[in-house]
Amino acid sequence: MTDRRRPGDLIDLLRSDAVSGFLLILGAVAALIWANSPGNAAYEAIRTFTFGPESLHLNLSVEAWAADGLLAIFFFVVGNELKQEFVHGELRNPRRAMLPIVAALSGMAVPALIYTAINFGQGDALRGWGIPMATDIAFAVAVLAVIGRYLPPALRTFLLTLAIVDDLGAIVVIAVFYTDHLSFLPLLAAFALLALFGHLQTGRGLGAVLRRSPVPGWAVYLPIAFAIWAFMHASGVHATIAGVAMGLLMRTTPRSDEQLSPSHHAEHLIRPWTTAVVLPVFALMSAGVVFPGIGPLLADSAALGAVVGLVVGKLIGILGGSWLTTRLTGAELNPSLSWIDIAGMSLLAGIGFTVSLLVTELSFPDDPQMMSDAKGGVLLASLIATVLATIVLGWRSAHYRRLAGTGTAAPAAGPGAGRT
């Protein structure tokens, strides 16, 4: 039988969160198997191979290009999507937008405190207090897409907002506590170009000139975007912040002569590339951690702090912070969600690959063994968090599927929220 699938159908398929999640997880599993196999030497040779212009300080390893460069494209899509939510969607309500933001902050503080308590008096191990602070948004969203087909969309928005805020917070922590030298001139240049990027989005002044010009928009925006990313990277700040910033600056309302706003048009074009290329390559290059075994890991206080901080700390910090915020302020949980949904999502936030591994490297540059054990702890914590979140959110997804089948409304977020 002839396959009648058109190229457009495949591109539409690549815009699916479930397909994106499957390819990302496939890349991560392949990386773990490769890194812990006899082919480890070849794997390390590939991801440590460096290329790029030295004159621009961009002679980076393949792993760095994937984590700092490719992932910035993914963060642009996420920032862009958040902007749409803030302007037109769920986060337009300040009482609901407040909740994931506060949850992110408490979800950073509690893991750091737990790590510090476990490693207090343990010498250099205490330097890794920032390891369990950040959620890996790419992996968390991917897992949610795979296991949570019937979960309310508001839970994904909550996770996106939370993960962006705690990634930004972790980047600030890195800049303040883990960066030996912050270059202010490149940082100012990046901010100046971001201001230009935002101005062009308004369609006034230079933006109006660009609209009337025969020069296609991409020929202007792409060089500006690359320059913003390069200056942000040169400043010492994690370069993915450039992607988030540009995404948040996108215009989300179409003009009378536009079918789609620049925000929706950019997402429509870029999302298939993030699914097919960006996230799988990132996972393949970043997730290859050598796993020494559970016994040796738990004997190391840095690894133990990472495991307990990510798995237990994220659950207590996010769920507890969210619940207290609704009791002490005017913040409210989306009516389509229940507190058990937030608990499952809090477990999912314990996936801490990218930024956690980066903080690990910055924490123990002179102690390869402690660095390796702490990375193993991050890996173990991420695996535990994935399994626990899969159990809870898989059960909740089945619950919502039954509700949809019977036509019953989702549980309200009020005094009875949290009961099924």
Automatic annotation (TrEMBL):
The family this protein is said to belong to: Belongs to the NhaA Na(+)/H(+) (TC 2.A.33) antiporter family.
KW Iron (keyword) present: no
Keywords: Antiport, Cell membrane, Ion transport, Membrane, Sodium, Sodium transport, Transmembrane, Transmembrane helix, Transport
Main subcellular location of this protein, as a coarse class: membrane
Entry membrane topology: Multi-pass membrane protein
Protein's job: Na(+)/H(+) antiporter that extrudes sodium in exchange for external protons.
Transmembrane segments: 18-35, 56-77, 97-118, 130-151, 157-177, 184-200, 220-249, 270-291, 303-325, 337-358, 378-395
Entry-linked Pfam families: Na_H_antiport_1
Compartment list: Cell inner membrane; Cell membrane
Reaction catalyzed: Na(+)(in) + 2 H(+)(out) = Na(+)(out) + 2 H(+)(in)
UniProt KW Transmembrane keyword: yes
Record-given protein name: Na(+)/H(+) antiporter NhaA
InterPro entries with a match to the protein in the record: Na/H_antiporter_dom_sf, NhaA
HAMAP family: NhaA
